[in-house]
Amino acid sequence: MKIGTALVAGERVDFQWDSTANTVEAIVNGRAYTLETKEIRHGVYWFSWKGRSIEAAVLRADQGHIVSILGHHIPVEFLDSRKALRRAGHADREGVVEVRAPMPGKIVRILVAEGAEVAAHQGIVVMEAMKMQNEIRAPKGGKIRRLAVAEGKAINSADLIALIE
Amino acid sequence: MFKKILIANRGEIAVRIARACREMGISPVAVYSEADRGALHVRMSDEAYLIGPSPSAESYLVIEKIIEAAKRSSCDAVHPGYGFLSENYRFAQACDDAGLAFVGPSAKSIALMGSKVESRRAVAKYGVPMIPGTMDPVVDVQEARRIADTIGYPIMLKASAGGGGKGLRLVHAESDLAGALETTRAEAKAAFGDDAVYIEKFAQNPRHIEIQILADQHGNAVFLGERECTIQRRHQKVIEECPSPIMDTGLRQRMGEAALQVVRAAQYYNAGTVEFLVDTNRQFYFLEMNTRLQVEHPVTEMVTSIDLVKEQIRIAAGAPLSLRQQDITLNGAAIECRVYAEDPENNFFPSPGTIRLLRTPAGPGIRDDSGVYEGWNVPIDYDPLISKVVAWAPTRGEAMDRMQRALFEYQIEGIQTNLAFFREILDHPDFRKGEFDTGFIERWLQERGSRKPASETERDLALIAAALADAVQGPEPQAVSTVASAWKADGRIRGLRR
Fold first, then answer.
1. Residue-number span of the structural domain to which B255 is assigned
2. ipTM of this model?
3. Same domain, yes or no, for A18 and A86?
């Protein structure tokens, strides 16, 4: 029986499990599962759970895994005790959000000024990439503490666009 | 008939054309950029020639390189596909000058229909109904304001050289006009090298319906029914069907005849599509003619049993049309979903990267026109269309059920796609009833909010699957956790290439 802690879709979960070639027994936050399984190939699993036929594909990600199941993509990260502590610290960090470029492109227009108050989902800049102009929007409401780009500037993916506080 | 055809395109459409060539005993010849080394269209062709770096401006859009590849490989014809050079009259002319048959209309027809202003003028003479607006590009904001006041808001700003949903802006009020005009001009200049923009009245709740035509070089022309292309997002079609749920024989006949008038006005030959807006009173208005094969051509093929690409090639070889109007019948219903590498949960940002897992749909009535394979890296440089799934069935309802089934079977992992988005639209009661207009998706996205999160059971099973994978030693297929990291990874690779 293996025991562990994981973050599943951002929520902390305690679990234990055991497997043979064709079955898995698991308890997840107190919920018991008995599954028929077959490894289709490494990372791709078929389950039969209460007669339901379900497929899950596990893909390695930057932190942990992304599991594709029944049309959902669910992040799963296994935590050792040190990682679990670090995570807890992160959660109550001050409320500054970094807005970063999702792809390389060009800033064609800036829609807000530094110091301005923005609402959640309000456009911050217009970026051109893949021949389309897209608005980059504020992930949350707040004050634009820093605007790190200028109109006409080419930017790379993950470059800082703005800090919202 | 031709012996060898150079396919001046990439992705799924290049694969589609290679298939038609092979069925006709013609050898398909591919061209490719550096990003497309080993692409599916290259693997499906008999010969392949590198034509330059990844940016299309340095490869797929360079006329000289493509002509040179065609000559080097002793091709006798060139098929341009859609996009890229397909509606560039200089390319058609260059093929002509090089003694290569261009699988498409004459350079003259392309030039005429490629100018929104000139085409409206030419078509107006043939009595085809048209939306109120300007015939000429607007000179400045003052003039734009005056015209908009006369025809009334909302209005559409349209790049004169535009197409494929690019270079379009909807303007609701005068306060937005100046900014919108500037943006449209800039986009038009960047995308088409021409910043001419004209104004049209915006029809409320319209449907977007187009007529497929085929015309030979001997003056014969037929229309092959309509395609319903109303389901769009940001003026880009996402779902198309044939027949249109609002069509009847009378309207189809009138629209078909109007389309043939457009063919006459343009002295058009080869395959072409005449786009119309149809308002709530079932009045139709000419929008534009696309002088090429359309992305959504498969729905027409499924319902008419006519292979449009083969017909294109026969026409280009000088053969007279073997079809008369009375030979063309519509059988059953077909629907197409355009599968894009994009993330509907993140403002539809493109999601390039490596396809780690691919299961394609099959079975009765399903056609998957794909340009990718498992392990293929969807490049950042081009349109993110990766495949078109088409479902055919005797009735519209069954075609939708079949499409829903195909979407269930379709699995693409490693990049984000809009498959889940289609599954939801196909279940929407208004969509099932055929009651929608071009604003359908935008309204639905607003009402719907975020997607329903995964259930507790789904999350628990995901954890169990991850635990199984984690316990086994060995490389697990790599995913991209967020859009940003996919781009980061891609950027790193590109950085190394430079």
1. 207-448
2. 0.71
3. yes
